[in-house]
Amino acid sequence: MGETVEQAHAQATGDTDTRHDPGPRPDSTGTALELLVHGVGGATPGEMLDDPRTVRVTGDDIAAVFRRTEDADAESRPADYRDKPVPEAYVWCNLTSGNGTRALWLLLLPFMVANLAHWMRPAAEGRRPARLYGLLVRLCGLTLTVLLTAAACEVALDLAAWQCAGTRACADRHSWLGFLAPAGPDAGWWSLPGRRLALAAAVPAALVGLLWYLSLRTWRAYESQRPLEHDPEPDEASGRTALGRPGFWYGRRLVARLRAAHTAAGLLTVAVAVAAPAARFDHRPGGPALLDALGWLLEAALAVCGVAVVTVVCRRGRGERRLDRRLDRRLVRRLPLAALALLLLALPYAGWARPGWASAGRLPVEHAFGALALVQGALVIALAVVAHLLHRTGSDPRTAMRGLGGPAVAMLACALGGVMSGGVAQRVSDWLDGTGTSLAGPPVLLTWQASVIPPLLLVVLALCALLARATWRTARAERAAVAADHPEGPGDPARTRRIATVRAMAGLTDRAPLLIAVVSAATFVLGAGALAGALATGRTPAHAAEGTYPLVHGGAQTAQALGSWLIGLGFILFVTFGRRAYKDASARRTIGILWDVGTFWPRAAHPFAPPCYAERAVPDLTWRMATWTRATGGRLVISGHSQGSVLAASAAWQLAPSDRARVALLTYGSPLERLYGRWFPAYFGPAALASLHQEVDCWRNLYRLTDPIGGPVRLPGECGPAVDRAPLKDPLAYGRTALHPLPSPILGHSDYQADPAFAEERERLLARLRPGLPAPRPGGDGPGTVPAADGGHQGCAGRSSA
Questions:
Q1: Which helix (H) or strand (E) holds 681?
Q2: pLDDT average, residue stretch 561-567
Q3: Does 719 lie in the same domain as 623?
Q4: Tell me: the pLDDT tens digits for 435-450?
Q5: Is the predicted pLDDT of residue 387 greater than 70, yes or no?
Q6: Is 700 helix (H, G, I), strand (E, B) or coil?
Q7: Do both 570 and 651 map to the same domain?
Q8: Where are the beta strands (DSSP E) in 669-741?
Q9: Number of structural domains the chain divides into
Q10: How far is residue 776's CA from residue 701's CA, in Å, rounded to a whole number?
Q11: pTM to 2 decimals?
């Protein structure tokens, strides 16, 4: 078989006519293959193949291709499959939801959201603006790493080691901190402020080490999967999308570089939190000259290493035009080691005995949170300016938020990081300080941020109320359309209202840009107000309102207390759901659905984000399709549902042109245009989808008006009806009929195979793919186009230009 594949590959590379295939090759087995790809939530091989007896053809326990047992040797019996295809099922659900430990990826949600912002770049020509956009998102991701590490330092170093252990009353309530107390019978060697900080630094350093290990482990499992090599095509030939570039699904080098930089940034943050308080004490007038000099040297070394980290993040982005096998081993090893060395030097420096040094108030690095918030706000503004300029040069009217989707999502990522950081700090502070009077508490900015949570929730509730009202109006307007679509049914007002309501609810997906825009704008305005209030007053909102009207003071106190509880409760629920998902398979599947949508894209902005499953799934599908078509000379239809259609399209782009022309595409419940085309226009925009329609053998798309995820592909011109079939009827029957004696359910996004139109369209595609039996064009002038059931044309070889 290996020799046959090589011979077929040689023939394929020598085939220059990629648009009009001459038919089966001499070594063709006459077999057609149907490759099924499931969507979100996963499926078993038995469910996909409608047979409990299945056998794994290729793959492992994580992702594999299955066949029915009776079809295992189908290629050796071509006569048995001349009138039917060989069905195969690609099962990839374990890439996202197979292991209980993946539920802990919920804690990496801000990193994942920031990584999504990278891929929401508007479609436009020119490399420099696109590179600047990616650079800004990478810097935003770097601030999130520093923020998370700073939050861990706030809890361990400030609240526990500096404030609680430095206060006798708090240390007495928590016996495990007794040996750190500065006075009392248990006071010992660790009671000095610097030594307490050095000991507590193990907690944030361990967190950074854990993130580094998880990133390294997933990097070896996902980014190191080598895709099928092929010659690069001009962007014009691949629809001006990067999804067809050889190195798109091979981000091994970039993730390794970013992992080194972010690990070093985390370790440097810990080193600054340990060394800065000691250096500040040493820099006072009359301090020890030796320690003063050591402090300046250590701070200079930390600054130089920090500049090196930022340089590494800014210097290189993704390399997609070729398969880059190189690895910057010196950088990957030396940068984190240098940061670790500085941290190890900071520990004895801070632990040096300093007479008269005592911990009082907050740790003198609390302004770091304000600086981080200011930098993140500036990056989001700059990102919005670049995105607006890109959208103006290559505008698409259906692009979400007029090209500002990326900046809005980046703003939400920063807000999620702030909420998680503030939630942990607030709850730990409340736990340590039982009376609420012995500790200074977390930084003032975190309290201000907690105070804006209630007004933000009011904005969200008001927007949800407006959307609910608009949905109710849409549902009323849809009743007439439902009656027109089901003229055979009797007048049942309850049934009509239910169908119309489901249609209206499905339309809420198209209103997501409005929701994201309002929430992100409100978050930006309220966050800016919180930052201004914290910097201007230096006090919590309740104390800043003292001396004003009692109503204002009471409102500030209420917002501060309610926001603190809400932000802490949200984080506790977050962790609780993750813990439940660790034990509950159904909850774990729900989380898997979130990752199916959120982790499709490679890690380009943040190396600590959950890994990209498509860097395993797309090469799997590409290798399977290419090797099978080259070895057998047959044609193949890849059938993708929901997220599986996105994987199928991405794999088709990765094929060589000669292989791509032998592949037909059947999509149903597909978010290719409705979600991916609108939110990721640079990669799934109209030009890219039109090019895919031109280059594959055939493409047909099915959708329902009741489907909240899938929708039409909306190709321009005559390509639209050639790909999109008219909306499928849902439910199949309005009332009881002879064919449907029991009430038909409203299927929505599921069970497209239950509709007779699915089998009809699949048969039309397979008829086109059967060797030696080309389907006629509508005019009867030879092979090419398959007539569609709804009057459109199955644009194959005789397509019109997009």
A1: helix 681-684
A2: 75
A3: yes
A4: 666 788 888 888 888 8
A5: yes
A6: strand
A7: no
A8: 698-702
A9: 3
A10: 20
A11: 0.87
